[in-house]
């Protein structure tokens, strides 16, 4: 009986943490720090050209655009494609939008060890990095993009040791 109560309590806590992570929003200054974009790039990509729109648009004076962790990952990936591969960001907006939909259906902790496979600039798929098939297209690991967010959100990374080792309950 006690074990069942402990498990139910743990599940409730995990659900609350996942809900809190889903609701975590970042202002532009944090997004700039997390993505490496300049303020002009962020404004250009998200407001002027509407390539990757903010999750909450500014609605009047003193209101700031807000970005979810999924959008921050998308902006980081778009910057990587732009900087490393000299790709035109406008050509990748549809693929990034599709990837954003996949990310919104995923949990943050469940993305560790995941890669993004771009079959083309318009198509993106999330896959396990243990996927053995040789892929054609652009393949980017998500872990380097998850680490800065995990640090900002004070979440553990897979390589961190737990503070208290698991004990058997009898």
When the domains are counted, the total is 1
Biggest sheet, strands in spatial order? 4-3-5
C-alpha-based Rg, rounded: 18 Å
For this structure, the CATH topology is: Multidrug-efflux Transporter Regulator, Chain: A, Domain 2
Structural class: alpha+beta
Name of the CATH class: Mainly Alpha
What percentage of the residues does DSSP assign to strands (E)? 5-15%
Oligomer: single chain
Our measurement of the CA-to-CA distance between the termini, rounded to an integer number of angstroms, reads 11 Å
Number of strands: 5
User: Architecture in CATH?
Assistant: Orthogonal Bundle
Tell me about the largest β-sheet: 3 strands, antiparallel
Percent in helix: 40-55%
Using the alpha-carbon principal axes, give the shape: globular
Helix tally? Answer: 6
Quote the average pLDDT: 86
Spans where pLDDT lies below 50 across 5 or more residues: none
Report a brief summary of the structure.
The protein has 170 residues and is an alpha+beta fold. It is built from six helices and five strands.
Kindly describe this structure.
With 170 residues, this protein is α+β, with helices and mostly antiparallel strands. The protein has one domain: Orthogonal Bundle (Multidrug-efflux Transporter Regulator, Chain: A, Domain 2). The protein has 6 helices and 5 strands; from the N terminus they run αβααβααβββα. The protein has helices at residues 2-23, 28-35, 39-48, 69-85, 93-104, 143-152, and strands at residues 25-27, 66-68, 114-120, 123-128, 138-141. A 3-stranded antiparallel β-sheet has the order 4-3-5. The radius of gyration is 18 Å and the shape is globular. It starts with a helix and ends in an 18-residue tail after the last helix. 24% of the residues are buried. The model has no long low-confidence stretch (mean pLDDT 86).
């Amino acid at each position: 009986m006690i074990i069942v109560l402990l498990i139910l309590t743990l599940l409730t806590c995990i659900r609350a943490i996942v809900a809190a992570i889903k609701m975590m929003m970042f202002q532009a200054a944090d997004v700039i720090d997390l993505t490496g974009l300049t303020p002009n790039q962020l404004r250009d990509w998200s407001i002027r050209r509407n390539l990757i729109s903010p999750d909450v648009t500014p609605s009047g004076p003193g209101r700031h655009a807000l970005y979810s962790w999924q959008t921050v990952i998308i902006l980081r990936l778009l910057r990587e494609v732009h900087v490393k591969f000299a790709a035109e960001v406008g050509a990748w907006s549809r693929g990034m939008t599709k990837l954003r939909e996949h990310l919104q259906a995923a949990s943050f902790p469940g993305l560790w060890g995941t890669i993004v496979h771009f079959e083309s600039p318009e198509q993106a798929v999330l896959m396990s990095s243990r996927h053995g098939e040789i892929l054609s297209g652009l393949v980017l690991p998500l872990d380097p993009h998850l680490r800065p967010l995990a640090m900002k959100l004070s979440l553990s990374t897979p390589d961190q040791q737990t503070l208290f080792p698991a004990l058997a309950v009898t």
